[in-house]
Amino acid sequence: MSSAELEGHEGHEGFDCSRARLQLYEYLDGEMDPDDCVKIRAHLEQCGPCLKEYDIDQIIKALVRRSCDCEAAPMELRSQIMSRITTFTMTVEYRD
């Protein structure tokens, strides 16, 4: 589905096609908020083009897992990834 088609496609259950497609891997990885999970599942049940993209992404993820499961990422790559991950800390002060 092209980006023009995604933008013009009406959303289902609070998820338009653009949002659903952006969050497919989050959904596949089980990293979504439970409420959003229900919404994207409902969207996929009602939207054939997004369901097709979901099926393709699921197949790709399975192929990658099967092909790379026994190999660890190179240490240099792991270091680069870890250096790009940032931690956000917030201090809250309460005033009386």
Protein described:
This protein is mainly alpha-helical and 96 residues long. The protein has one domain (3-84). It is 64% helix and 0% strand. It contains six helices and no strands. It has helices at residues 3-8, 17-22, 24-28, 34-46, 48-68, 75-84. It is flat. It starts with a helix and ends in a 12-residue tail after the last helix.
**Rg over CA atoms:** 18 Å
Main β sheet profile:
none
User: Helix and strand string, N-terminal first?
Assistant: HHHHHH
> What is the approximate shape?
flat
Helix content range of the residues, please?
55-70%
Tell me briefly what this model is.
With 96 residues, the chain is an all-alpha fold. It has helices at residues 3-8, 17-22, 24-28, 34-46, 48-68, 75-84.
Key features?
96 residues, mainly alpha, 6 helices, 64% helix, disordered N terminus
Produce the secondary structure layout:
Blueprint: H1 3-8, H2 17-22, H3 24-28, H4 34-46, H5 48-68, H6 75-84
Helix pairs in contact: 4-5
